Amino acid sequence: MTDILMPALSPTMEEGTLSKWLVKVGDTVAAGDVIAEIETDKATMEVEAVDEGKIEALLIEAGTEGVKVNSVIARLEGGTSSAAPAPAAAPAEAKAEAPAAAPVAAKPQNDPEIPEGTPTVRITVRDALRDAMAEEMRRDDKVFLMGEEVAQYQGAYKVSRGLLEEFGERRVIDTPITEMGFAGIGAGAAMTGLKPIIEFMTFNFAMQAIDHILNSSAKTLYMSGGQIKSSIVYRGPNGAAARVGAQHSQDYSAWYAQIPGLKVIAPYDAADAKGLLKAAIRDPNPVVFLEHEMMYGLEFDIPDVEDFVLPIGKAKIQRTGADVTIVAHSRMVGFALKAAEQLAAEGIDAEVVNLRTLRPLDTDTVIASVKKTNRLVTVEEGWGPMGVGAEIAARVTAEAFDDLDAPPARVHQEDVPMPYAANLEALTVPSVEKIIAAVKQVTYK
Amino acid sequence: MARAAQKDSKTDSGKKLSNVSRDDLLKYYRQMVLIRRFEERAGQLYGMGLIGGFCHLYIGQEAVAVGMEAASKDGDQVITGYRDHGHMLAAGMDPNAVMAELTGRSGGSSKGKGGSMHMFDIETGFFGGHGIVGAQVSLGTGLAFADFYKQNGNVSFTYFGDGAANQGQVYESFNMAQLWKLPVVYVIENNEYAMGTALARASATVNLSQRGSSFGIPGETVDGMDVFAVKEAAERAAEHARSGKGPYILEMKTYRYRGHSMSDPAKYRSKEEVDEVKTTRDPIDHVKTMLQQAGVSEDDIKTIDNEIKAIVLEAVEFAQTSPEPDPSELYTDVYLEA
């Protein structure tokens, strides 16, 4: 004997009207036969038999309203083992409390020890990025570079200069102008264990591909119960360029840094660029690597060592100071350092924290600095609302409230799309002057 | 540039019979019945509140996944959208793990963290299970890119529906697949309705096999209710892709018997239309008739039916007794240790 139960026909249905029986006692039914019609608040639906057998009894009269989901509406005689499992088997309400949030990754390692006296080389950020890719491509055949103008043209910003020559067109691949398509191809290739580097000419164009970055890369490990790994780097220039207007000047730091499953890196100088891009390519997780067009041509010293790799998730104290903590990432670290220099002349000793990684965020380094200086200024190129500075201010006020001698201050782009006119553009973006003003605000100078 | 071929493959059951072994017939029948009985039970469990959210059943379309699978080789990949249970079972995934994923239990193929639309199985080459309409087309082209990069001789079978066929990234993918001659077979499962919108109401051209013609991708329309027609076309398409000639499009004319999802009453089509397909084009009845013609007895068919029923009931049992995921699983599988 098999019970036939009142089915739920939508995720929210609790009861319905059994409007019509299409079978009668004594009828023989097979799996798939329509046996009744049920009316919900939205629609009339057909109910099919799942078992075969003879209808022994119809327990609810046609036309009955308010029939509860999972109540027995009919009985079949015969049939093999009971098809209808006990309704009590419905999953229990969440009984256990959610466990405390685990750290997104193991504690970050420290930077590699660079012995005193190690020689340095002077190199542009552009070449540091190129060298990082070349070294990792030499090391691992699974790594390839794909994007618009990356091969024959040598990169729209010349970041991939020389790579086609060394690695050939199998591994350095020019794509059509089709961000969503090639991001998806990269994400799919990564599912098989390859390690794509997907270059966006700028992150503004990655908006066309953001579905694959989030839905096809960031969430796949979780949705597959740990089976499908996505070791892929999405990289390119991010943030405000110069005089290119609203659609080509936007900082996406906060957008990507909100997504669990992604790692998000925003390097400042050549050492960050090289050490972190190598780490990003090796990382088994999807990484969004936010470069900055205005930094590509700048030169910095980096240690002249074999295989220079920096830890993901570790901020760097770029300048030591005692009076105020300025937290910045990407190009804004340079602005913060300039502001600190000028402030030093006025007797204010600023510490500059270069975040380097936005997800996972190195809160410990920021908190330790604030505990020392008791004052916080955040700087970012993006808009303020829901931004990186907002997140840091929230974490600092939650974890070091008693150490603060002033409310944190945030420096960020004005809350408008990027204007084209030179004077308006200058008014919109963060500046050394704005950082100095914010520092004076929190130091009450 | 390859000339886009258009061909209608229709199978005459009687004629084809001589080319099909009795074992193959039995295998296809078994796989198709497994999918149908599995889906019916999934519908039942949904009705009991044991499966949540969205649940899109494959009933009516069984011949497509089974026929395509018959032409695939070890190492080939399969990727599809959200109506994915049939492809998983055809690929050889464990019915217990699939059903337990539907009920959100720890024994599910994604440990209960994926659900109906998000299941994967590296072992059988099943790469999902994707909930964003059309995303699997770029991803499947990426699987083919990986095959091409590794020169491993494998083919990516990338399934999508008549609805997804209007997404922009489909054409971005077609372009790159043909430009680079990637080994991908695009299988368009044309079940006539994208949710509630009939093909002709959403598509300026309705011959989906020709959607690759501006890229020079050959395509053909196939009777997707005939597992042998599907298999034959699949073999042609796979051979084309495997031999380095690039992508191939198969438009499968098929039909879903149930609504778009469990909560869809399917009022956009008539009962007569559905009944007509069920009685005249049912893919399982078709194979059953051929089995009978091949001299397989009613009893032997009944034995298979009972075996399948037992497999599905075991899956139902497993899907209810497998415990819910431990709360500690909440924070696992977000990142891999570097």
TrEMBL record, chain A:
Q: Which PROSITE patterns match?
A: BIOTINYL_LIPOYL, LIPOYL
Which BP terms does GO give this entry?
A: pyruvate decarboxylation to acetyl-CoA
**Quaternary structure and interacting proteins, as annotated:** Heterodimer of an alpha and a beta chain.
- What residue ranges carry the coiled-coil annotation? none
Q: Where is this region: Disordered?
A: 81-118
Main enzyme class = oxidoreductase
InterPro entries recorded: 2-oxoA_DH_lipoyl-BS, Biotin_lipoyl, PDHB_mito-type, Single_hybrid_motif, THDP-binding, Transketo_C/PFOR_II, Transketolase-like_Pyr-bd, Transketolase_C
**What cofactors are annotated for this protein?**
thiamine diphosphate; (R)-lipoate
Residue ranges under compositional bias (Low complexity)?
83-108
The alphabetized UniProt keywords are:
Lipoyl, Oxidoreductase, Pyruvate, Thiamine pyrophosphate
Domain Lipoyl-binding as annotated: residue spans: 1-77
Q: What does this protein do?
A: The pyruvate dehydrogenase complex catalyzes the overall conversion of pyruvate to acetyl-CoA and CO(2). It contains multiple copies of three enzymatic components: pyruvate dehydrogenase (E1), dihydrolipoamide acetyltransferase (E2) and lipoamide dehydrogenase (E3).
Enzyme Commission number(s) of this protein: 1.2.4.1
Pfam families recorded for this chain?
A: Biotin_lipoyl (PF00364), Transket_pyr (PF02779), Transketolase_C (PF02780)
Q: Name one GO molecular function term.
A: pyruvate dehydrogenase (acetyl-transferring) activity
Q: Which CDD domains match?
A: lipoyl_domain, TPP_PYR_E1-PDHc-beta_like
Q: Which Gene3D superfamilies match?
A: 2.40.50.100, 3.40.50.920, 3.40.50.970
Protein name according to UniProt? Pyruvate dehydrogenase E1 component subunit beta
Q: Which reaction does it catalyse?
A: N(6)-[(R)-lipoyl]-L-lysyl-[protein] + pyruvate + H(+) = N(6)-[(R)-S(8)-acetyldihydrolipoyl]-L-lysyl-[protein] + CO2
